[in-house]
Design goal:
Blueprint: H1 3-11, E1 17-20, H2 25-34, H3 41-52, H4 57-60, E2 61-66, H5 68-71, E3 74-75, E4 78-79, H6 80-86, E5 90-94, E6 99-101, E7 109-111, H7 117-126, E8 131-138, H8 147-167, E9 170-177, H9 185-205, E10 214-217, H10 232-246, E11 253-256, H11 263-274, E12 282-287, H12 289-299, H13 306-324, H14 330-336
Parallel strand pairs: 1-2, 1-12, 2-5, 5-8, 8-9, 9-10, 10-11, 11-12
Antiparallel strand pairs: 3-4, 6-7
Helix pairs in contact: 7-8, 8-9, 9-10, 10-11, 11-12, 11-13, 12-13
This protein binds 1,3-dihydroxyacetonephosphate.
Amino acid sequence: MTTVESTIAALLAPGKGLLAADESFPTIGKRFKDLGISSTEENRRAYREMLFTTPGLGEFISGVILFDETIRQKIGDVTMPAALARQAVIPGIKVDLGTVALAGFEGEKITEGLDGLRERLSEYRQLGARFAKWRAVIAIGEQLPTMAAMQANARVLAMYASLCQEAGLVPIVEPEVLMDGNHTLARCEEVTGAVLKSVFTALIEQRVGLETMLLKTGMVLSGKECPQQAGVEEVAGATLRCLRRSVPAAVPGIVFLSGGQSDVEATERLNAICRPGGMPWTITFSYGRALQGAAMKAWHGSPANVMAAQTALQHRSRCNSLAVQGKYSAGSERAAG
Ligand code: 13P
């Protein structure tokens, strides 16, 4: 097996998923501020040290997505990627530089970071990364998204993915359809389907190997402000139907973002999506907030809380591991909680 293929097999190992710990400076700053933790370089380092030294992390977590600052930081004299490797966890890296307004398209965004990406990917590989992530953001509104914004984001994702494959890194291609708004489940399904079709058209045109990439997507959900909130089974049904219609079977894996769902909701819905089985791709999680929320709250910036925080991360990781096997239930929360 080539390195890229073995990386994919390891990331998609049965019962395991990814931890997204790649919050940019503004994002980690916001999460810390909400808890009254100051976002200093040392606090960010200590927080990620707490996450990555969680005992048995590699039992349920196959890969961690890092941020540029973190991949260069150390735990004692061990680099973060080496510390993860000791836990049998594969280090990856967020390589986009965030979103800006898409000129001419009010309310829509484009993701930056293609300039100099070839050189950055080569450096990240030397620093130990084996996969990369790029996030595009699509908002749902009355007139949104426009075809132009979907296609612009799809083309940029495809350029990124082809550069990753050239560099020997597995690209995680992430077009996130935001939960914000009062749209229905059906509208989210329609938009997610259109976005995925546009992304796969661009990937194929750009000669991206579908067999050596992963898709990261959101579940099909009712908008946060929609008065009619779809239930767990409805979400799972719409999500699977949408993915079956839009994601080629050549893609080895689909990993979900949590996108602002509560941690338990993200686990329950993942369980319902995975329970039927028999899909052409492996499905698992690549959660940020839904894995870290309780742990960050427990940690609260204090070394005295490290064990409690790690216990919270272990618990959510175990619950999501059960979910990808379709074996999660309300009892799983109590069992280890
Ligand atoms: P959330 O699970 O918090 O949405 O983060 C996942 C992620 O990587 C978003 O890019």
